[in-house]
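FORM 7B - TANDEM STRUCTURE REPORT

SECTION 1: FIRST PROTEIN
SEQUENCE AND TOKENS:
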Amino acid sequence: MGVWRPLSGPSRQVALEILLDGPLSRAELSRRVGLSPGSLTRLTKPMVESGLLVEVAGGPTDARVGRPSQPLDLDADAHHFVGIKLTGDSAIGVLTTLRAEVIASVSRPLADPTPSVVADVVLELTDELAVQVPGGTPLTGIGIAVGGRVANGSTVTWGPYLNWVDVPFGDLLAAHTAVPVVLANDLTSLTEATHWFGAGRSADRFVLLTVGAGVGFGLVVHNRIVDSPDVSLGLIGHYPLLPDGPRCDRGHRGCALSLLTVSAITDQVGTALGRPVGYDDALDLAAKGEPAARDIIARAGRAFGKLIAAASNFTLPELVVLGGEGVRLAEVAHDDLLAGLHADRHPSAAELPMVLQPADFTEWARGGAVVAIQTFVLGIE
């Protein structure tokens, strides 16, 4: 397997500050990292010479020398990363810069969940994306986002969507590529992407709720993700929302899984109409006023609002981010969502800013790339 060689000490802190908030003046950098101007200059000089940092124009004039200062920025194109999201039936890949800007994307179906077959698909996607790196420079890292539990950034100890148990998937990939590879839970990856480069980057506390194949919950508090192996269990999916709702496969009545997942909604609308329907079809029918679909989507919207209220009442976030492939529910059932939210919030409680992520798997794949970026910058702890 390729070796991660992250920066260390003050160099790492300087690079991280610029990566997330750059360009920054040398004076601001000195304040943030606690170094004197002279020490900062000595530290950053080799980073500039190597091309990792670049001086940019447009800084304020320095009265002491009578010329504009040159803030430091990071050359986001100096490194490129591949992020791949594995679902139960597809692999979605993106190529990103060091700031997680997506510059290319590809996807492949997964007809066979056998680990070696999936590894071949991942390597094919990686090769296809690698040739699109500007200048033909090599990839810096690969990040794989997978639903389930991941150990040591390499082994999928439990992957329910692929029916994997104790699969050393990182080793399978490493046997065929010199590019460093890291695996992570997909919800953790998406939360980190939201934290570092997304809607949550300026929030001290935010909640991420996702709806799609399952129901997910991510939390950042005091600018750090709250992580646990139990993230992979989707515990919030069994949170009770409506006492008269349908039952989930574990017998819970009116829990989040029974009301909010893509399959729950399509099954309920399909049963009501007497024919199979797709997810977007169900939402379109509700938006057009079809009575059965409208009632089911309205109920789901109220339940989604109650879930947001519960998560917010417990964690007191500054921001709520909604994501997942089923997030369009929040748009179609907007009024019902707000009704459910306000019913379970104190009238004097602060209004919750809510941001919707794109409803496709590219965001999840970008999360895989972000985990690779974090590993490159911070190392594996």
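SECTION 2: SECOND PROTEIN
SEQUENCE AND TOKENS:
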Amino acid sequence: MALPGSGLIRFGRRAAEQPTAVKPDPAEQIAALPTPMLVIDGQGIVRDVNGAGETLLNLGRGAIIGREIEALIGHPLTSMPADAPFAAYDLEVVLPPDRHQRIDLMVGPMPDRVGWRVLTIHGLPPAHLIGRRGDREGGALSAIGAAAMLAHEIKNPLSGIRGAAQLLETSVDEGARDLTRLIRDEVDRVAALIDRMEGFTDTRQIVLAPQNIHALLGHARELAVQGFASDFTIREDYDPSLPPVLGHRDSLVQILINLVKNAAEAMKNKGNVITLRTAYRHGVSVRLRGGDGKRSLPIEVCVIDEGPGAPEEIADHMFEPFVTSKPSGGGLGLALVAKLVADQGGMIEYSREGTPPKTVFRLLLPRAGQS
């Protein structure tokens, strides 16, 4: 029954025992918004930003407030009417550091502050930002089945062909031996391709442990400069405060070597630079398999090259098997990288960033010790 004048309802307990609802502070609500939001004054200077805005811009609050909005998103907004709301859809902006992205922008005036506006940014996937784990799981399973079948059906006959070529080599003249050697070399090449395909067939769960990502990067760099990347400069741009990453050592080394090799093969000028970069990023997480919670992926590892990037027609399919723009490529290197990254619960992305644009392969990995 309702108590007169109280507005409370009793269900077998005294009204005074009902829990008191605490009204959230508006600032708390804004800070918790998952949508990036910024407040700018009449001169286009940022006066406030929420946590999602910091994540989108890859900058801390102190580095955002006080800067012109044009310097942050590549759009001045001062040419737009300040006294009426407006929206811009599929707008191309340039986010720090030189990331070209298309967004939907919503802007509204603040009635009590002349010229001040609140804007929210709704991000769209960049044209060449791909590689989210969920987008590839179906294709990865198909690749596993195809690789297992082909490895079984092709590799056994190859060994017989190679053995026959060896026997022929002992009984033919010198001119014919060149042909038998050609047969052996081609069989070995195809067998090596099959060996790489078999990497897709290993579905055993790997054991993850804390790893020093900078030590693994250093190992991959040393192998590269002593071999396939000896003609290039490899620059290191590391965040020394990074905590250990949760991963599988051998798989991580293979991922890094494949990405550095891909960068070297993409560049023709020997004076070009490959950059290895690490950073700690907030706000990125993936859903655990089975949908049982999420895992944060704050460790960022980038392999950056100065090559021309992937042709537009294959950029959205780079992590799929047998997709390549290289005349001598098999199209399995990046597909295997994607599988190994997914096995460790991480993500890999490809994008073109900066001015002039550079190719960026970005690994996002879990931190050791997180629940």
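SECTION 3: OBSERVATIONS ON SECOND PROTEIN
Residues 1-18, 125-138 have pLDDT under 50 and may be disordered.
The radius of gyration is 28 Å.

SECTION 4: SIGNATURE
Preparer initials: ____
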